[in-house]
Amino acid sequence: MSEKKIAIVAGRSDTAQGALEILSRIYSPVSAEEADVIVALGGDGFLLKMLHRYLKLKKPVYGMNRGSVGFLMNEFRPDDLYERLEKAEAIELHPLRMEAVCNRGEKHHSLAFNEVSLFRETSQAAHIRISIDGVERIAEMVCDGVLVATTAGSTAYNMSAYGPILPLGSQVLALTAISAYRPRRWRGAILPHEATVEFEVLDPLKRPVGASADSTEIRDVLRVKVYEDRSLWSQVLYDPEHKLDERILREQFAH
Questions:
Q1: Are residues 84 and 121 in the same domain?
Q2: For residue 2, what pLDDT is reported?
Q3: Which of 27, 142, 192, 204 is least surrounded by Cβ atoms within 10 Å, i.e. has the fewest?
Q4: pLDDT > 90 fraction of the chain, expressed in percent and rounded
Q5: Domain residues for 12?
Q6: Do 140 and 209 belong to one domain?
Q7: Model confidence, pTM
Q8: Are residues 105 and 217 in the same domain?
Q9: Residue 1: its pLDDT value, please?
Q10: Mean pLDDT within 68-73
């Protein structure tokens, strides 16, 4: 069995740094540019940061949980890493692209592997118009916010907002309201993955709205466009017994 060249990156926590020290003694890590695989030690948030950081390298990322939830991570075990990497199964993720225009005319572009969300900035509820592929679908949503989630991100903020859990490979996106007051009882929508979602903030001076793409936040947006960028991809590796699609399926039957 040929040994893959691995890069090892870790979060700042003592737990992650301790794991980095252990693995560095056992294996011979190289730089991310030289590596065949990038091993990420931390939690789900750290893994997302590494997907963003190394997106252009197009190197597979293998996460081991040294954080809290670790839904997107494999179990941490220092032994047999080369064998685990050889047997690991790859899932290809395409990020969402957010294009936002702010009230001073600034334009921002950001990527999200989990979700793009809009959220009210003050005690005033947000008023947001929603269009899908150029067709107005909701003239005015009164809410705390609204989000678009990928299949991988459907078990994150989207699930907390009672959005649907999406199976991997289903080629869909979740459009989910956050504490919607109007329309009453609107439960969100499941959209084809090639859909373009556009949000327009109504009354932005009285009811300012921010937007976020994963960990990138922008304030005082007027318009936000969201779509899946199929030209970009990242591979995440999973042990066969910890496949992400199986975890997503289990979440739908969790008590």
A1: no
A2: 65
A3: 192
A4: 83
A5: 6-93+233-251
A6: yes
A7: 0.87
A8: yes
A9: 46
A10: 82
Q: Is 239 designated active site?
A: no
Could you tell me if residue 141 is inside a domain?
yes
In this structure, the answer to whether residues 178 and 195 fall within a common structural domain is yes
Q: How far apart are CA 95 and CA 116, in angstroms?
A: 10
Q: Are 43 and 76 in contact (CB under 8 A)?
A: no
pLDDT in tens, 219-246: 999 999 999 999 999 999 999 877 777 7
Are 161 and 186 contained in the same domain? yes
* pLDDT at residue number 72: 85
Q: Choose the catalytic residue: 14, 36, 44, 133.
A: 44
User: Is 1 part of a structural domain of the chain?
Assistant: no
CB 198 within 8 A of CB 223: yes
- 198 and 241, same domain (yes or no): no
Return the closest-CA partner of residue 62 out of 14, 5, 130.
5
Number of domains comprising the chain: 2
Task: Kindly state whether residues 49 and 114 are assigned to the same domain.
Answer: no
User: Is residue 86 in a domain?
Assistant: yes
C-alpha 173/C-alpha 189 separation (Å) is 8
- Average pLDDT for residues 156-167, to the nearest whole number? 91
pLDDT at 248: 75
| pLDDT given for residue 157 in this prediction | 93
240 C-beta neighbours (distance < 10 Å), count: 10
Spatial neighbors of 65 by CB under 8 A, at least 6 apart, are 42, 43, 73, 74, 75, 76
